[in-house]
Amino acid sequence: MTLIPVYTNIRYLDDDWMFWQHQFQDSVYSSIAHLFSQRFSVVSISSTYNIPHMQRDGSHPLLDINYCSSDLIIRHDAIQLSRLDKIKLVAEWDLGLQNIRTCNRSEIYQNNFLNCGRCWKCISAMLAFFALGVLEKTKAFPRQDLTAELVASVIKIYVTTVCFYEELPPLLIKKGRSDLAAVIESKIAEDERRKELNQLYASFAAIGKRVDRRFLN
User: Fold this and answer.
1) CA neighbours within 13 Å on the CB side: how many for 203?
2) Which of 52, 107, 112, 114 is deepest in the core (most CB within 10 A)?
3) DSSP state letter for 52
4) Phi and psi (nearest 5°) for 77?
5) Could you tell me the CA-to-CA distances from 45 to 64, 88, 112, 130 in Å, in that order?
6) Are the CB atoms for 28 and 19 separated by under 8 Å?
7) Residue 168 CA neighbour count, 13 Å, CB half
8) Which of 40, 38, 31 is nearest to 10 (CA)?
9) How far is CA 216 from the centre of its chain?
10) For the chain, first and last CA: distance in Å?
């Protein structure tokens, strides 16, 4: 396989993370793929979510097919694998383990590490690698230590990310880190409470609309 590095400044069109997550990302990947349409006929974009947890997102199997052309097929790949399944694959591949890049915060890279080791994406990946027993084997992060305080202060779990963490607590407990497992379980419980409140608010809003239509027109 011949690796073809591609460098682009396309992210500078709009550097807002939420825009990237929900609208921009696969259009960027696909535009780069189309540059090579005379060389490739099929290009795969790795799925963010697996089938049971598929979300509306800027990367989605129903979206990617719209970026195909007569010359190039865009595949939304690996929807059968969970986030932890993918991390297991990297953990078993030393070249990937030593060079994995999860971080978007390039402005705070230190000492030539690929990842900052502070943001939620870094801490999330480090938690998974620790749960699999390989965090100390990678040099991609500037730290191999994780404290419950650090995880609690950085990780925020929402409906769109809860599936990235549900598999971790049993593995962390087996590693003797029930403190880290407790933090994750607490964050997941907070998300459940938020969902219940949102459902309650939605019910009140629906009742209010019916009352408004019937009595106030």
Assistant:
1) 6
2) 114
3) G
4) -105, 155
5) 8, 19, 27, 26
6) no
7) 31
8) 31
9) 46
10) 67
Model pTM score: 0.80
Q: CA angle at residue 125 from 151 to 53, to 5 degrees?
A: 100
pLDDT of residue 217: 82
- Please write the tens of the pLDDT for every residue from 158-210: 888 888 999 999 999 999 999 999 999 999 988 788 777 777 777 878 888 88
Residue 156 has, within 13 A of its CA and on its CB side, a CA count of 3
8 Å CB contact between 172 and 181 = yes
Alpha-helix runs per DSSP H in the chain: 17-19, 25-34, 61-64, 83-91, 94-99, 120-131, 148-154, 168-174, 178-211
The single residue listed with the structure tokens 């939620």 is 120
Looking up tokens 């620790």, which residue turns up?
A: 130
